[in-house]
Amino acid sequence: MELPSLFFKLAIAVGLGLLVGIEREHHATKLGGIRTFPMVTVLGSLSALLAQSYGGWIIAAGLLALSTLIIMGNLAEVRNGSWHQGLTTEVAMLLMFGVGAYLIVGSREVAIAVGSGVAILLHFKGPLHGIVQKLGENDLKAMMQFALISFIVLPILPDRTFGPYAVFNPRSTWLMVVLIVGISLTGYISYKIFGARAGLVLGGILGGLISSTATSVSYARRTATNPTLSGVGAMVIGTASTILYLRILVEIAAVAPRFLATAGPPVLTLGLLLAISSLVLWSRSRLEQDVTLPSQENPSEIRSALVFGLIYAVVLFTVAAVKQSFDGRGLFVVALLSGLTDVDAITLSVSQLVNSERLSGSEGWRLIVAASLSNLAFKGAIVAVLGDRSLVRRLFPAFSLVLVGGIAILFLWPG
In degrees rounded to 5, what are phi and psi of residue 196? Predict the structure, then answer.
């Protein structure tokens, strides 16, 4: 290793150690602070340097020596009667030793990210504990169920295709379930953390992450009994519907990154149209700052995951079958019908087919846009049937603008 590069990495080790040491010094921990942590990180780096010439046992010896010093320091505190339960600082020291070693033998960027992450985790102890206290038994159950479907069910499923058209792959299908449940669970946990009352924009964002359709139904019903909520309802529904387009982009990027270059511009254009409309709605409702979010259900229930997996497989099979047996208009019928209540399934299935080159990118994004317009029209119908007339008057111009713009994009967008 060249000398300038070596000194640069050692300087990074010192900097990362200082960052964590300052945080620990601020919390008045006796075991290690602003001087100890930089030395621990540099010790890790020097151990890794020596290991390149004398073998990996040098790193093990350094880690053992550090562990011995930690034990001796804690024993001294116990004798003085000043030892406090908790191993956060001790674990941080061991981890920063590893960061120092990895700076030499691994990726500098990863080492910097891990070292900075340690400092951030230590600093936000209070807020993190507050978040945990806000989570109840059902919320922990939701996270455990997500772990079940992600880390236990997914790995044991066969990774090969079955059935006609060779499109049904159990592991790929369940991976799509994990993706959608993960997005919805993020919104659900955020809803629990921020509480039932949130700002207008945050309420719409969380509604879009969990389910823009369910959010539309909830607020439409509430305005029917309380018309004064029409301004708030229009803003939240508009924002939730905007988040749907960002959700589509995330799903495409996760399944078919190359497809994003083709599908991204038209989908983003529609999202921007709806975002501008939502800003106009916000300007009319800005005095109403609090939103009572509707009660949300656990999105990681096994039954819900199975239902979505079935819907996704059916849509995937149907699109492949129609593509092979009928013309392009048949695909648009499938997209319009499947998009009425759920855009996720058609987005993921189309992205999979584009990724495997069974659909062209031009066909794919048009199907996804058509499904999103169908979903928007369906939510407009929900508002018209269930909501107060004032809510309909507020949302009608915004939804109409996006529907007209979407139809124009379908026919006029190049490619």
Answer: -70, -20
C-beta of residue 179 within 8 angstroms of C-beta of residue 315: no
359: left (phi over 0), alpha (psi -120 to 50) or beta: beta
Amino acid at 400: S
User: What pLDDT is stored for residue 292 in this prediction?
Assistant: 55
Please say whether the beta carbons of 356 and 195 come within 8 A.
no
Q: Which residues contact 88 (CB under 8 A, 6 or more apart)?
A: 122, 125
What Cα–Cα distance (Å) separates residue 7 from each residue in 38, 59, 72, 99, 361?
14, 20, 32, 16, 49
Cα distances (angstroms) measured from residue 252 to each of 100, 166, 179, 275, 397:
37, 21, 11, 20, 29
Give the span between the Cα atoms of 111 and 90, in whole angstroms.
Answer: 19
Task: Please tell me the predicted confidence (pLDDT) of residue 145.
Answer: 84
DSSP code for 340: T
What pairs with residue 197 in β-bridges?
A: 292
Q: How far apart are CA 397 and CA 227, in angstroms?
A: 18
pTM: 0.71
What does the chain come to in residues? Answer: 415
pLDDT of 27-84, one tens digit each? 656 677 788 889 999 999 999 999 988 888 899 999 999 888 888 877 877 777 665 6
State yes or no: pLDDT of 288 exceeds 50: no
Closest residue by Cα to residue 184 from 165, 208, 204, 202: 208
Residues 86-105: what's their mean pLDDT?
A: 87
